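name: query_chain
kind: protein
chains: 1
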Amino acid sequence: MKPRMLTVLATMPYALALTLAGGSAWADVKAGVDAWSQGDYAKALKIWRPLAESGDADAQFNIAQAYKFGRGVPQDMTAAIDYYRKAAAQGHAQAEDNAGLLLYQQGRQSEAIPYLDRSAERGESRAQYLVGISLFNGDLVARDWVRAYAMMNRASAAGVEQAAKALEHMDRFIPEAQRKDGLELAATMTAHTQQPDQKIDTPANDASAPWRPAPSSAPVRTTTLPPSQPAPVAKPIPASTPAQTGPTKQSDGAWQIQLGAFSEQAHAEVQWKALSAKIPALVGTQHYTEPAGTLTRLLTGPFPTRAEADTLCEAIKSNGAACIVKPH
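structure:
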């Protein structure tokens, strides 16, 4: 059976966030953030522009954000990409992520792939989804179904809904041996939480809300904006094997943690093995699966209190994985 191309099912939502990092320009960059938080975008940009021209990556990233969302300047995606690229060239990870995603959404997929590939290797789930599609199709990069399957599994485990659907397509085309290799590769991937030394964020729909610094050790917080227009993309995926019965769910406890949704039972078990090996807090906890339409959810618990479940979920997130606390 000839594989059908995978297409990007939907675009990822934007998140509006500025960065503050250490270094001699920290106070000046923060002064711009303070002006921004008061709604004085022109003053913020006036502070950031000379810093950006002198090579400050955080100022370059913040100016890119202003152009992308049209704050203090007319919205200009080309200018935003230019500033993202300048910051990315200096090792600004979040700028690299945004450059790849925005290039892709602007229809410049071939330019986006190098950025997305590096982002995906660091564990950026949206980049993993897009790179997985390209690897499956073999249109923007050389076809590699093993790595495509691994990338798509990582993205699905991180909660990218489109990735879970893409896996169902892949399961109809990728041979079982290659899917198995892909799962083993996915289990070895380490997803790193990407965050600058200091991050400032604010509700995207409330320009007057104060920006506040998040502790550098905490997971990055973002605010979702309405999705952009869909970007054209690829199509794919393999024949599934019969689902196996997972561990029995315990009945005591009012809360549980969802660790992902997968197209096959085996994928869930591989993800549990990878997470429990990497996150000490999971050792000794019960895991189980439950059907959710065509998907299989991976959960752990139950826990007697919401606070206990929240604490474990934060530990999971701090290790670069996704989780959701839910009633049991």
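note: The chain has two domains: 17-188, 255-327.
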